[in-house]
């Protein structure tokens, strides 16, 4: 379906600002930006980037050293392609140069208002400092993506997420297991916009408790980690709860095509996604019409690069690199997100002209070192479980595959005893078909309620010892 500025103005009309923000029209400007010509957007990017580069040249010690080493002078910052001459900034480099990435001087509107942390998957988490504009963009960009998803702001929303990502309980503490947080508005957009009610529930609650709450509250919208959505889709959801549910959003984990199909077919609603980083904020949102991730160009720039740090050819997969345009408190130029994504070209069928990229394939370090064909075989195992669980709802609650350094795999499944034998046989047959040879590493399928990292913020349904660092 082709969208236009007119359709987005209409979609924006149901989002009512709180009286304190009634004079602001940034959400309307964001909608207008989505249909600017490619040339207009290029000029907009160029102006924002040049301002940031000049600031880094003058005031940020780390980049002053980089520019000096590369013999880049201030006049060179006007040149097209100058950004690509700057070395990619990896997480370890941010940790090692955290102080040097802070400017020598900040104007009042560029002073730190909040800090976030890197995920810590490459070692100790690094503190990222954000200024007022950087943090202030989040609710506006969140509303933009929810507008694209055609959410009704007066609907109800259930958020099942880690405790540290939820609002605090009334006593000021983190939410506890089985505790339900009741809010008069939606998280993230409530500061600016009038919304319906919402509830919070932590993701370490049992899948049975999550389903019970979903059936009880019957929300219009559900947001949770992608792996959690997958497990929810294998359960028995009441007809009334399904009828009330209009859309779900998968966050944090990679959502594979198999997982998307499973969730959408089981819940009969679309699965929406965005792409963001603690270090940057919201980076892009996936348009429902074309399935591309459109970049929030007012806030950041995205490149998909190959092993030589050069732009990927369309259709190929490369590393996702982000430059924050909003954060002058700690500028990150060409920051390596450690994710793999597809490069695309041409216009998106949705009609939006914002820069875009294709499917996100997950962490580079979680895929680059795996034996060839690992994820294809993993997809076959998933498909086998989905097929059997489809006709036996609520009998499979959770699962996780673990691959050791010999390539051998253990598949743990929390399921009813009376379905386990059939499920085990189905998975073994799928694994054998996927290898198509007698040289397949062994696989064991066991019934278990114990999973690696299940109390961590991100539950991974696949873990491999070939991955050099944990992604939990």
Give a brief outline of the structure.
The chain has 472 residues and is of the alpha/beta class. It is 31% helix and 21% strand.
The structure class reads alpha/beta
User: Helicity range of the residues?
Assistant: 25-40%
Mean pLDDT: 92
Count up the domains.
Answer: 3
Uncertain segments are: none
Radius of gyration: 23 Å
Q: What distance lies between the first and last C-alpha atoms, to the nearest angstrom?
A: 37 Å
Largest sheet: 6 strands, mixed
Under CATH at level 1, the class of the largest domain stands as Alpha Beta
Secondary structure: number of strands: 20
Strand order of the largest sheet: 4-5-3-6-7-8
Tell me the CATH superfamily of the largest domain.
ANL, N-terminal domain
InterPro entries: ANL_N_sf (IPR042099), CapK_Type1_Caps_Biosynth (IPR053158)
Protein name: AMP-dependent synthetase/ligase domain-containing protein
Organism: SAR86 cluster bacterium
């Amino acid at each position: 379906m082709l969208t236009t500025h007119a359709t987005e103005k209409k979609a924006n009309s149901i989002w009512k600002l709180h009286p304190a923000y009634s004079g602001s029209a940034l959400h309307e400007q964001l909608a207008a930006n989505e249909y600017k010509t490619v040339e207009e957007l290029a000029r907009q990017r160029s102006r924002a980037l040049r301002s940031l580069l000049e600031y880094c040249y003058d005031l940020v010690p780390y980049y002053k050293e980089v520019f000096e080493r590369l013999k880049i002078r201030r006049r060179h910052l006007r040149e097209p392609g100058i950004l690509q001459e700057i070395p990619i900034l990896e997480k370890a480099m941010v940790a090692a140069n955290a102080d040097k990435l802070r400017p020598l001087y900040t104007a009042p509107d560029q002073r730190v208002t909040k800090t976030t942390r890197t995920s810590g998957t490459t070692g100790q988490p690094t503190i990222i400092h954000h200024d007022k504009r950087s943090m202030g963009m989040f609710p506006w960009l969140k509303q933009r993506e929810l507008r694209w998803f055609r959410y009704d702001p007066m609907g109800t929303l259930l958020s099942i997420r880690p405790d540290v990502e939820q609002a605090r309980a009334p006593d000021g503490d983190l939410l506890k297991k089985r505790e339900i947080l009741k809010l008069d508005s939606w998280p993230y957009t409530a500061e600016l916009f009038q919304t319906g009610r919402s509830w919070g529930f932590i993701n370490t609650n049992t899948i049975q408790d999550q389903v019970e709450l979903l059936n009880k509250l019957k929300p219009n919208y559900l947001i949770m980690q992608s792996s959690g959505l997958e497990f929810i889709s294998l359960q028995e959801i009441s007809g009334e709860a399904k009828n009330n549910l209009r859309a779900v959003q998968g966050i944090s984990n990679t959502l594979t095509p198999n997982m998307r199909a499973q969730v959408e077919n089981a819940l009969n609603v679309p699965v929406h996604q965005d792409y963001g980083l603690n270090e940057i904020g919201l980076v892009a949102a996936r348009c429902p019409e074309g399935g591309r991730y459109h970049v929030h160009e007012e806030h950041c720039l995205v490149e998909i690069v190959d092993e030589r740090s050069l732009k990927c050819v369309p259709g190929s997969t490369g590393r996702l690199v982000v430059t924050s345009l909003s954060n002058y408190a700690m500028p990150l130029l060409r920051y390596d997100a450690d994710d793999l994504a597809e490069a695309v070209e041409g216009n998106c069928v949705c009609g939006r002209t914002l820069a875009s990229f294709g499917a996100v394939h997950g962490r580079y370090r979680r895929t680059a070192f795996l034996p060839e064909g690992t994820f294809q075989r993993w997809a076959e195992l998933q498909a086998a479980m989905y097929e059997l669980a489809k006709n036996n709802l609520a009998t499979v609650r959770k699962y996780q595959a673990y691959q050791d350094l010999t390539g051998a795999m253990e598949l743990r499944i929390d399921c009813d005893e009376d379905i386990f034998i059939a499920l085990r046989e189905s998975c073994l047959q799928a694994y054998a078909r996927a290898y198509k040879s007698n040289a397949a590493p062994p696989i064991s399928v066991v019934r278990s309620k114990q999973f690696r990292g299940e109390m961590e913020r991100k539950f991974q349904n696949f873990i491999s010892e070939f991955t050099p660092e944990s992604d939990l």
